[in-house]
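Pipeline run #58 for the internal structure catalog. This entry was flagged by the ingest filter as a single-chain record with no existing model, so it goes straight to prediction. Upstream metadata was stripped on purpose; only the residue string is passed forward. Reviewer on rotation: M.T. Logging verbosity set to normal.
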Amino acid sequence: MDTNEYELSKLATEYGIKYIYDTEDALLENPEIDAVYIASPVSFHKDQAIKTLKAGKHLLLEKPLGLDVAESEEIRAYVNKTELKAGAAMVMRHHDGHRKIKDLIQSGKLGNIVSSRAQLTCWFPDLPGNWRQIKSQSGGGSLMDMGIHCIDLLQFLLNDSVESVCGYISTKEFSYEVEDSASILFKMKKGTVCYVDSYFNIPDAAAKCLLEIYGTKGSIIAGGTIGQDGGGEIKLTISDQSGGYESMQQRNEEILNTKLEYDKKNIYAKQIESFSDCILCDLQPDTTIEEAHEEMLIIEAMYKAASQGITVRCD
């Protein structure tokens, strides 16, 4: 469904799509449709999500759930009234490399995780009329659009939740009303300190979109896995330093270059397959609406912390 009939007809021809619609109501009236994936501008999420559930369709909703916590809570409350499957599209969870990293962390091979970082940045200059640069349509800028992926990913990998946050959020380079720069520091309930940087003002070629996990027995450094194509490279270091302190702090380059192999399948395809399995096999969505709502609360705390220059607890 789209209001642009020309683009719809092109897509229908290219992919052999049986049905196309220019209104939500017409789509939702089709009894052959079991589930709806909402990937519209954020300002439409709340109304479209509730309308989808009222029509008896399963729901996969793009992040963020709504423009603010109030909208997110409305969606959450309605989901809790239904027996339908409802999930949030946190696509980074579907990267096979991230799944393998999670398994390594949970196995204890990295020891106690003490520090983590997730970076998602891009070049996003002033584009008049672009909904992502208008707060009333997007809810926020680089933190709301990209940083939320990093927060969700770190909570997923560490099997933990955010306890307190602080940071800096501003618009440094461009003239639009949402932030183009966000540097956030937060502490997990199990003690891990995490850093998320999400920027709209770093050239695409310069942005490495790094994921770094440091533990008492090793580390994982991933480049390019936080992205849209399921690719990237992951380097694993396992180091037993039980022998004690070494003043020279020598680093073995051979173990630093151990690469982790994984399936580089498109993460959006995997997300759709997973949600289909959720419906067909009566499984829980990979990211529940409840989890996505909690992340909206975290985002709200981060905006508050940055605007007031304080640390905000998230419990």
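catalog note: The chain has two domains: 5-91+270-286, 93-265+297-313.
catalog note: Residues 297 and 304 are 11 Å apart (CA to CA).
status: ready for reviewer M.T.
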